[in-house]
Amino acid sequence: MSEETVTKETDAYYTLSGDVNSDMVHRVFEAVAEMTERGIDTAHVLIQSNGGYVSDGLCLYNFLSNSPIKFVTYNGGAVASIAVILYLSGTERYASETARFMVHKSHATASPGARPDALNIIVEGLRADDARTESILRKHVTLTPEQWAIHQYSDLHLTARDAEVAGVINSIRDFAPPKGFHLHNI
Predict the structure, then answer these.
(1) CA dist 43 to 14, 27, 35, 46, 170, Å?
(2) In sequence order, what E strands does the chain have?
(3) Tens digit of pLDDT for each residue in 12-48?
């Protein structure tokens, strides 16, 4: 059996787009179950997402990081907010030259007329979410002190070149499934 045949049988190509939410979690769970049944060793996943719910992003990061399948993640356009944490689950990570990343602290809107105890619960939840996401960022990414300062109070935008310097990506490379491969949409 040739090496090309082995690669075709054990590699697969996927797209994953939309909001990071419980629907995406369900779709990814189903897709990974199908991958394991097919004997996929390496899944190349193009991610396009402006973010969503922190808990769902953390769930996907933990699930994919501990899967027996090697995930190679790609950014072909925009990966932002909690989707960056999902993206970091890839053991190899690539982005197109024109791709961008954006990370920021958690935020929430309180109900009008919310009482102080309710506001305190919201604040504590945001702090907990920020601690969890920042620990993952620090595990994978090396930002400058200036970038961390921006992240502290605002949206931090990174071009593909910035992301390469920071270690968000291994290198600039487009998602380009080989001819003849079936592209699966998660």
Answers:
(1) 7, 15, 8, 10, 16
(2) 11-17, 42-49, 70-80, 92-95, 100-103, 156-159, 171-172, 183-185
(3) 999 999 999 999 999 999 999 999 999 999 999 999 9
Residue 88: how many other CB atoms lie within 10 Å? 23
Q: Helices then strands (H, E): number in the chain?
A: 7, 8
Task: Encode pLDDT of 66-121 as tens digits.
Answer: 999 999 999 999 999 999 999 999 999 999 999 999 999 888 887 888 888 887 88
Q: Which pTM value belongs to this model?
A: 0.90
How far apart are alpha carbons 133 and 146 in whole angstroms? 19
Residue 93: CA atoms inside 13 Å, Cβ hemisphere, count?
A: 24
Buried b (16+ CB within 10 A) or exposed e, 111-127: eeeeeeeeeeeeeeeee
